[in-house]
Amino acid sequence: MSMWSRWLHTPKLQRAARFVRGATATSLAMPPPPQSPMNPSELQHWLGEVQQFLPALQLRLMTPATGAPAVSNVVLLGANHDSEAAAVQITHTVAALQPDHVALELCNRRFRRLFPLGIAAFKRLPAETRQAMQQRLTYGKDQLAAALAADSLSCPIALCDRDVQVTEARFLTGLAPDTLLAGACTGLGFSCL
C-alpha cells in the first residue's frame, strides 16, 4: 500500500515547538514536537500522538544502535506517491519537525524530471503555472511537497534512490520475451497476434 519515501534527520526539533495549522478543509493541528528531540522515547511518543492527524502517512522512528557514534534520529515517512492527502501531510510534518536534512526516494534523473530547472526556478513560476503543473502530476506529489517544504526551510535535500535506469533494467529482465515483443509492437502501433 505505502512505500517508505522520506527520511528526516531530526536533531534540531527544539526549534519547532509550535503548532502547525493545515491548509485543508479540516484543520491539521498537530501537538508540538518534543522539547528534547534526541530522546528517542519522547520522539516516539510524539510520533504516536501525531499519527492520528496524518492518516495518509506511516511514521517510523529509527534510532542509532547502542554504542554507535552519536548520530541523529531518523524519522521515516511512508506515503502513497499519488496521494494528495499525503502531499499535504508531508508538508506539515516537515514544517513541524524542521529537520536538518530531508532525503527523498528519488534518483537525480527523477528529481530533474520534477524540477527540470531546479526548485528555485519552480518557485519563481507564477502561482497558476505551479498549480497547473502540480495538478497534472500523476505520481510524486509527495516527493514534490517534501522537496518544496525542505527548500522553504533551507534544509538540504539528499537523493537516496538508485538510478531509474537500473530499476527499469531490472524490471525488463524479469519480463518474458513474448511480453517484451507485444509491448514493443503495441508501442510502434502494430498488432501482435
How would you sum up this structure, described in words?
The protein is an alpha+beta fold. Helix content is 42%, strand content 13%. The chain is built from eight helices and five strands; from the N terminus they run βαββαβααααβαα. It has helices spanning 40-50, 84-97, 108-114, 119-124, 127-136, 141-152, 164-173, 177-187, and strands at residues 3-9, 57-62, 74-79, 101-104, 157-159. A five-stranded mixed beta sheet has the order 2-3-1-4-5, with helices on one face. α2 runs parallel beside α6. The longest helix is centred in the middle third of the chain and has 14 residues, at 84-97. The two termini are 35 Å apart.
Low-confidence stretches: 1-27
Strand elements, count: 5
Helix content: 40-55%
Structural class estimated from helices and strands: alpha+beta
H/E series, N to C?
A: EHEEHEHHHHEHH
> How would you sum up the global shape?
globular
The quaternary state of the protein chains shown equals single chain
Strand order of the largest sheet: 2-3-1-4-5
Radius of gyration (CA) equals 19 Å
Treating each run of at least 4 consecutive H or I residues as one helix, how many helices? 8
Strand percentage lies at 5-15%
Distance between the termini: 35 Å
Main sheet record: 5 strands, mixed
Round the mean pLDDT to the nearest integer and report it. 78
